Amino acid sequence: MSLYDLTAETLAGKPMxxxxxxxxxxxxxxxxxECGFTPQYAGLERLYEAYADRGLVVLGFPSNEFGAQxxxxxxxxxxxxxxxxxxxxxxxxxVKVKAGPGQSPVYGFLNAGxxxxxxxxxxxxxxxxxxxxxxxxxxxxxxxxxxxxxIEAALATG
Length: 158
Known about the structure:
Elements: E1 7-9, E2 15-17, E3 25-31, H1 40-51, E4 56-62, H2 74-85, H3 105-111, E5 123-126, E6 132-136, H4 145-156
Parallel strand pairs: 3-4
Antiparallel strand pairs: 1-2, 3-5, 5-6
C-alpha cells in the first residue's frame, strides 16, 4: 500500500483518489487556522508555487485535535486560507490525525511505524512512489534548509 492507493475528501466535500497524484512528490501537512504555526501557510504556498512544475504537491489536512485550533467548517477554512495566505494547493476535509477510532486512513498510513504528529503543521514528505520519505515536526519551517534539501532530493529521483 502507498499514499496513492487512498482516497480523501476534499475541502469541497468531494472524494479525491490520491492515485491522481501518483508520480508526484507530496508534502502532507496537518494544518490549523488558529495556531502559532499558522503563518507557515505562506511558506507552504511558496514551496508549492516554486516546485509544482517539477512535481511537488502540498496537501493540507485541517485538524482540530491539537489545542482545538481549527474550529471552523470547510467554508471558513477555505476563505481563511485564501484571504490570508493565498493558498492554492489542495486542501482536504478536517481529519483526525492521531491513532484511534475515526483516524483518517491517510494519517493511519503516514503514521504507521512512525512518531505521530504532536502538534499542528507536522509535515510528511512522500516520494513519487507514495512511500513516506520522512517526517518533520511543527518547528521545521517550510523554507528550512533541511526540508528544502529533502524536497529537492525527492524531486531529483524518478
